[in-house]
Amino acid sequence: MSETLAIDIQDLKLAFNGRDCIDIPSLQIHNGEVVLLFGENGSGKTTLMKLLSGLLEPDSGKVRVLGRNLTQMSRSEKDHFRADHIGYVFQSLNLMPYLTALENILLPCGFSPRKQQIVDSAELSGEYEAYQLMARLKLEDPMRLRHKTDQLSKGLQQRVAVARALIGNPSLILADEPASAMGSYSQRLVYELLIEHARENNTTLICITHNKEANPLFERHINMKDINKNALSNPLW
């Protein structure tokens, strides 16, 4: 694989309950690319994200991410790899409700010595970086970060999830509908921050969104029906 590739997929296949849902012959994304992934509901967008992060195991094919073949890694190796190198904004957010917003943002550093080292090498505390990220997301009251996440609005929870994905400068950011609960102004802020952060750090960004206003912000657009042979045959899975 070329060292310029962040993502290299070959003959990737996955079926759920006996139904084929992912059949991607080939997909390459270069390091530092800012990519918008779109398609109809059920076309496989979220499933592809989980395959790229190692959260799902394909039935066959090759998935190389940042030069590593995920299909040859153990579950533990994939967990460590994801913690060190990937920032993920889940569609369901996956925030810890018993932790404060600040604790949620800092959580990746606790699982990744690499991310903790990056935060420490900047001679700034992780807490400071968390506040800086939320300031760029226009958090008006910093004290809100001391609240438990289940006490926050859905829009603010999404901001926390975005900051959590960015902390520690991961090499790959996967963002699945990261601003769906926000108004148009706040949505644009989120997309702009994700893209700015990616360009500042030469990070690869893959973002799922149905917001057509975000289209011009991304340099590359990938329609699932163009890469997934089963995108149209399975309306939902």
Q: Spans of 5+ residues with little confidence (pLDDT < 50)?
A: none
CATH architecture tag: 3-Layer(aba) Sandwich
What do we call the CATH homologous superfamily?
Answer: P-loop containing nucleotide triphosphate hydrolases
Average pLDDT taken over every residue: 91
Sketch the major β-sheet. 5 strands, parallel
What's the helical proportion of residues?
25-40%
The first-level CATH class is given as Alpha Beta
First-last Cα distance: 32 Å
* Number of beta strands: 9
Structure annotation, total helices: 8
Beta content comes to 15-25%
Query: From the helix content, strand content and strand pairing, which structural class follows?
Result: alpha/beta
Radius of gyration: 17 Å
Label the overall shape. Answer: globular
Secondary structure topology:
Layout (H helix, E strand, L loop, with lengths): L4 E12 L2 E12 L3 E5 L6 H9 L6 E6 L2 E2 L5 H11 E4 L11 H11 L1 H9 L4 H11 L17 H13 L5 E5 L7 H18 L2 E5 L11 E4 H4 L10
Parallel strand pairs: 3-8, 3-9, 6-7, 7-8
Antiparallel strand pairs: 1-2, 1-4, 4-5
GO molecular function: ATP binding; ATP hydrolysis activity; transmembrane transporter activity
Protein name: ABC transporter domain-containing protein
GO cellular component, one term: plasma membrane
